[in-house]
Amino acid sequence: MVTSLETAQRLSQPVTASLYEREGETRQEFLLNKRDSLLTVSRISPGFTAAMLDRWQERERNANIPDFTNPAAAARAWAEQYEKCHRAEEQLALWAPKAAFFDQFVRVKESMGFRQLCKMLKAKEPQFASSCWSAISCSASAAIWFRRSTISTRAILRCTAEWAKTNTPGLQARFTARGVKWVADLWSRHLSTLAIELPREERSEGKCRSRAGCNL
Prior knowledge:
About 55% of the residues lie in helices and about 15% in strands.
């Protein structure tokens, strides 16, 4: 097949052939580029040709390329792309302080209690507990029991036996340094899913601007 394609001058470059032995037989190997390889396979396998043509037509149907020969279409496509980039930059600038917060403060070397961890993350205890409910369960006394997880519990949590003022034994659960980083990552993922709310000052300012625009 390769020889016939070369004879018919269908290949884009001269064929390089080499001989090799396999199972006691001398065989010939052709070194082709991608274009010539696809051409050879399409001639040998009709099924491959049909699949390739179907894929080609599917991409043509789904293609949404603007007509850049039309100045209006080209300007519209440029404006849409500019808006996408601008929104991405705004989103990045919005989350940059939060990312810097976790990079700066989640560098602990000692274990931390539940309330201490909430204070460091500036999170309300009920909201923090409910957001991480799939991984941890928190009681009113802030004692923590981890459910089954792929992460080693001992590496995340450290339990110590203590005596309360009523002389009753109890367990106090504290997050290890690794546990703090793990929970902070859960909290950051939760924050990324929340809707962004503007402060009251910015919202009131926006209403004033809209009213002024209506009056104009």
